[in-house]
Specification:
The protein is α+β, with helices and mostly antiparallel strands and about 100 residues long. The protein contains four helices and three strands. The protein has one domain (about 5-90): BolA-like (GMP Synthetase, Chain A, domain 3, 2-Layer Sandwich), CATH 3.30.300. The protein is globular and about 40 Å long.
Amino acid sequence: MSVQATIQSKIEAALQVTVLEVENESHMHNVPADSETHFRVVLVSEDFENKNLLTRHRQINKLLAEELNAGVHALALHTFNPQEWKDRGESAVASPACRGGSAA
């Protein structure tokens, strides 16, 4: 199973998911072709009601600890409860362009 599919599967199994987008953004970075090292996750869940941003991110990082320890270098998390998602017009900000990291 791909890392992307594993991330999606683990989140779907652990949370009440309303919206879930898991995007492999590795191609936007200085990594070998077909890498699975940089991901953007947009997640809307009722489980985030009354939880602050740090608590939400810690919950996802704990859930994906194995992947983070096994090669996932970056995990951009955009976490919302359903009302926040609606208030934002059902969209999350795009990831910025890579600035080159150690290759710059």
